DNA sequence: AAAAGTAATTATGAATTCAATATTAACAGG
DNA sequence: CCTGTTAATATTGAATTCATAATTACTTTT
């Protein structure tokens, strides 16, 4: 049975603001003006402020008491920490997937994998990454653990805006493809320990972190304004 | 530098409602009346509704469009999934802790450990569990990964209300203490792989899950009302 | 009496209004 | 010209009000 999709104004607004952040239309550290966004979206402050609270809980923005909100500044450490976590979660998803996945689902992933290999041989980076993403998503779904999926998606969202893999060297790419070959073999053997290990070590994450090392503006500014929800 | 503590009305209300849920004053599946809680806390609907949205994001309650909110019903599967995740996160925390922890911090944990052993030998279950909790918290803190800590704490909060370990058998207890002995040894050797493995396999989680199997009312009712934030 | 349909009531969703806090601007003194 | 103080402005925090959807109570009909 398909679940009912909740479409509240606040959720709509939260998603739209999330998009603005992802696409860089709201910059890291930028102060978020309630009035401005209200006019942009054509809603009153009530649903907008609800959205801000939700986004703060999801880790995309920070709330400064009596001083509004601002987009979370992604320091290198924060991104690194998030990727460490995502690697652990991917590892778990692999272990669980081995226990639950059906032959049919494995076949579907094998198809995605072959398609991904095609794009790899044609050096189509963009298409490659899309297939790559679909494979990881399929494994996550096969884990049958909804809490895990929710957490992973939340973390993924937090770092989405710094996810562009320009500096992909051929060596890295080759290794990533080898990893994937091993992954799908482990999956077909349903070797949960092995798949978990591969996914935890999979350099996709580490590559991105390495790539990002030079990208992120790590100026660590006005930290005296930092606030924690308590 | 100590961080500024945010104390907004909505956050206060959210915490108070969280306490009500934890202590069973709001039952699983129970409909949450806005008016009632407004009167109870002496606040208007605005901050209360903001709190509800945050609690929904944190996974403690569900929002039913145009039909208010209700406390999330903890099915056995949901608890099991959450514990699987927490075990993975504890494993990661152990690995990271080995890399960052100072000799002084290890000594502090050793002290906690010894104190825990005392309570074990005196069969003081309550005091034992408090020390146990402190040890795991110390390792988590030593991981130096704030995102990890945030996620772990959120998961912990979700299952807090079903955390009472009555049916602790002596055999389980003995094993748990052995695990802890191995844990602290691995920590002192800074063997991250080993500590990670121990924590992932640590039966504390599994014990609780096993204990809960008989406790949780898994009636799986009116699921047609189920809603997902989208 | 049971079921279905309609009116009344209640609760939620969202906009508006009021109050408190922070930011900016103006000004005086050094 | 710079610094510190105070007044004006703007923004956020919270309560209230209005609108809309859901629930309940009450008819009406079979």
Automatic annotation (TrEMBL), chains A, B:
Ranges of residues in domain HTH gntR-type: 7-74
InterPro entries: GntR_C, TF_FadR/GntR_C, Tscrpt_reg_HTH_GntR, WH-like_DNA-bd_sf, WH_DNA-bd_sf
Signal peptide location: none
Protein name per UniProt: GntR family transcriptional regulator
Domain of life of the source: Bacteria
Keyword list, A-Z: DNA-binding, Transcription, Transcription regulation
A Pfam family annotated for this UniProt entry: GntR
MF-aspect GO terms: DNA binding; DNA-binding transcription factor activity
Keyword Transcription: yes
Gene3D superfamilies hit by this protein: GntR ligand-binding domain-like, Winged helix-like DNA-binding domain superfamily/Winged helix DNA-binding domain
């Amino acid at each position: 049975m398909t679940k009912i999709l909740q479409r509240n104004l606040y959720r709509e607004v939260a998603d739209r603001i999330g998009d603005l952040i992802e696409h860089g239309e709201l910059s890291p550290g930028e102060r978020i003006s309630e009035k401005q966004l209200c006019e942009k979206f054509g809603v009153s402050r009530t649903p907008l402020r609800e959205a801000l609270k939700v986004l703060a809980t999801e880790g995309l923005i920070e709330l400064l008491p009596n001083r509004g909100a601002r987009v979370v500044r992604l320091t290198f450490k924060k991104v690194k920490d998030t990727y460490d976590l995502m690697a652990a979660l991917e590892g778990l998803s692999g272990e669980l997937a081995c226990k639950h996945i059906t032959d049919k689902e494995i076949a579907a992933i094998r198809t995605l994998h072959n398609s991904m290999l095609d794009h790899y041989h044609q050096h189509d980076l963009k298409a490659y990454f899309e297939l790559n993403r679909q494979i990881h998503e399929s494994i996550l779904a096969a884990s049958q653990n909804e809490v895990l999926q929710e957490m992973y998606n939340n973390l993924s969202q937090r770092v989405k805006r710094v996810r562009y893999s320009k500096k992909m060297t051929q060596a890295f790419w080759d290794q990533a493809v080898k990893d994937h070959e091993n992954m799908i073999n482990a999956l077909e053997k349903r070797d949960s320990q092995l798949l978990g290990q591969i996914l935890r070590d999979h350099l996709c994450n580490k590559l991105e972190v390495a790539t990002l090392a030079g990208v992120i503006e790590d100026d660590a500014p006005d930290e005296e304004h930092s606030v924690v929800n308590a």
